[in-house]
Every structure is written in C-alpha cells, then in structure tokens.
Write a structure and sequence with these properties.
Elements (H helix, E strand, L loop, with lengths): L5 E5 L4 H12 L3 E6 L17 E4 L5 H8 L4 E4 L9 H19 L2 E6 L11 E2 L10 H17 L5 E5 L2 E3 L7 H6 L8 E4 L7 E5 H12 L8 E5 L3 E3 L4 H9 L6 E4 L2 H7 L4 H8 L9 E2 L2 H7 L7 H11 L4
Parallel strand pairs: 1-2, 1-4, 2-3, 4-5, 5-7, 6-14, 7-11, 8-10, 9-13
Antiparallel strand pairs: 10-12
GO molecular function, one term: aldehyde dehydrogenase (NAD+) activity
Organism: Rhodoblastus acidophilus (Rhodopseudomonas acidophila)
Protein name: Nucleoside-diphosphate-sugar epimerase
C-alpha cells in the first residue's frame, strides 16, 4: 500500500467526485482523475481541479482503473454509468473493477453513500448500524455494493463510506435540487418540492461533503478497515426551509411552491423506466429521514458545515438561477 497522499478519483467530473477531488488537493494530496473524455471539461471561472492529473479511461474497464490506480493509497468511487443508463446492470461491475484495483495496490476505497439502503423500519433517525431493508431494486443494489466493500476490507482493500442526504451545491448533477426544484440557467418562477407537507428532510451541501472526506482521510491511520460514518448536513425540519431559502435568496419570498406531480410520474412509470424508478423512491419524501452524525463528530471534533443561507446562495449563483 502506498503511504503517499495520492488519490485516484473516479467521477471527478461529477458533483461529489469533483468536490472531493478539490478538497483533497487543498489538503495536500496528489490527485489523479479518470474520465471518459477529460478534454470535454469546461470549468466556469478558476478551475479547482487544475492541479489534478487527468487520465482518459472508463471506470467500467478494469484495466483502465488499475492503470490509473497505480501508486494510489486511496480510490474515490464517485462514479455512475453514463447518463445513468443501465444503472442496475452496471453499478456492481463498476465497483468490482474498483475493488480489483484496490486489492492490487492495497488502496482504501472511498464511497459516497446515500439513504436508498433503508426502508421505513429504520426511520426517522439513521445510524451506522440501522437495519438495511430497502424497498427498491436500486436500494438493494446499494446494499450489495456495500456488502462487497465490507468483504474486500477483510482482504487488502479497506473501505470508507460516508452516508449523505440529498446533495445540492455549485455543480449541477443528478440531484433533486437541480433536476426538480430549481433548473440551472433559468429565471425561477415557482419551486417544485417533492416532499410531503410538514415532513423533515436531510440535505448535504457538496463542498461540505468533499471536505468531510478529506478530513477523514487525513486521519486514515485511525480509521477502521471498514469505516462508516453518517453526515447530518442541513436538516429541514418541516420541508419549508429549503424552499424558503431559495425564494428569499432570489428576492421573491412569496414565490409559489408546487408539489411534485407524483401521480403523473407514477403513470409515466408504466411506460418509462426512469419515471418508474423515481416513483418508487417517493417513500423517502413521505417520512422524515435524518442522519445521526454523532460518530462523525466524535471522530473529527465537528462536521464541516457551511451556513444554510450561504450554501443555498452559492448554489443558486453557481447554477445561474435567477
């Protein structure tokens, strides 16, 4: 295993992968980023990943991953299939490629986790040892993915999983904020909110999430072989804080809030796989789901935390939402 602060980031062109790579660079790590087409990157303003070494390759190709991982002590697995197509068929082969490379070089695998792993029996407060009985195929795949990481950690590939709520931040991506609530590059006339009234929800600001990984990895010698932490982030206790913050930051506090048309999505799901998968996740918006970060705070001293108003303001500005 390399003792250098050298990391391979898979998914550095995405939200959590990019923020983790940027945080590692700030903390003095050497970062290699594997991307299918590094030349297609078009950073807006100063490039926080300018110091990274970019390599062209496919995270689905074990040879590409192994080639890029040589000399790395950490592999950040923050990658998804292109356009989320065939997600259910490709996610496990992708983690298998990462595990193979990590075992070859004795590297630690770092995974951003989510709440898909859980069913209502674990609500409302999720802890690292809460039962994982997911309701969806996507959730069951996530459970299996983490099981494979735990198994690999008993061999030569320790693992670190940090579980987050729904992401939002200065990078657009496959998240509820930029795909449902506030479309990037538009003048917002109303906000579409997926959650049930008076129901709490957990949000994770991407730069805080990336900083959390960097701080944990700076203390890698104290981590368990299979280390899991939960990140509380921003807890919206009644489902109104996020929509209120968006409206106030845009200077239109009376902006209309529309419910997500779940029935329409459910009907579309009879014919479209994407709509079907979205509809099946609605239970995560119909009950309060909060993450207990007491283990993370005990380990780090405190959780990285940008104020809610600043985080929402920076997100709207970066996504050019007016």
């Amino acid at each position: 295993m390399s003792t250098d602060k050298t990391a391979l980031v898979l998914g550095a062109t995405g939200g959590i992968g990019g923020e983790t790579a940027a945080a590692l660079l700030r903390h003095g790590w050497s970062v290699t980023a594997l991307a299918r087409n590094p030349g297609a990157r078009e950073p807006v303003g100063p490039d926080p990943l300018a110091a990274a070494r970019w390599i062209a390759g496919d995270a689905l190709n074990p040879r590409d991953v192994s080639r890029a991982a040589e000399g790395a002590s950490v592999i950040v697995h923050a990658v998804n299939p292109p356009g989320y197509r065939d997600w259910g068929k490709l996610v496990l082969p992708m983690i298998d490629a990462t595990i193979a490379a990590a075992e070859t070089f004795g590297a630690r695998i770092v995974l951003p986790g989510n709440i898909y792993n859980y069913g209502p029996d674990a609500f409302p407060l999720l802890k690292e040892d809460s039962p994982q009985h997911p309701r969806t195929a996507k959730g069951r795949i996530r459970v299996e993915l983490e099981r494979r990481l735990e198994e690999a950690s008993r061999r030569r590939a320790p693992a670190l999983i940090v579980r987050f709520g729904d992401f939002f931040g200065p990078a657009p991506g496959a998240n509820w904020f930029s795909q449902s609530m506030a479309t990037p590059g538009t003048r917002l006339r109303s906000i579409t909110y997926p959650g049930a009234p008076r129901t709490g929800h957990s949000w994770a600001y991407l730069p805080d999430a990336g900083e959390t990984f960097a701080r944990l990895l700076d203390r890698a010698d104290r981590l368990e072989p299979f280390a899991r932490f939960h990140f509380e982030g921003h807890w919206d206790p009644d489902g109104k804080w996020m929509v209120r913050a968006i409206a106030e930051m845009l200077g239109r506090p009376e902006m209309k809030v529309n419910p997500l048309p779940w029935r329409r999505i459910g009907f579309a799901g009879l014919f479209q796989q994407t709509a079907r998968e979205i509809y099946r996740m609605r239970y995560l918006w119909r009950a309060p789901v909060r993450l207990d970060n007491s283990k993370l705070v005990a380990f780090l001293g405190r959780e990285p935390h940008t104020s809610f108003s600043q985080a929402v303001g920076e997100t709207l500005k970066a996504l050019k939402i007016t």
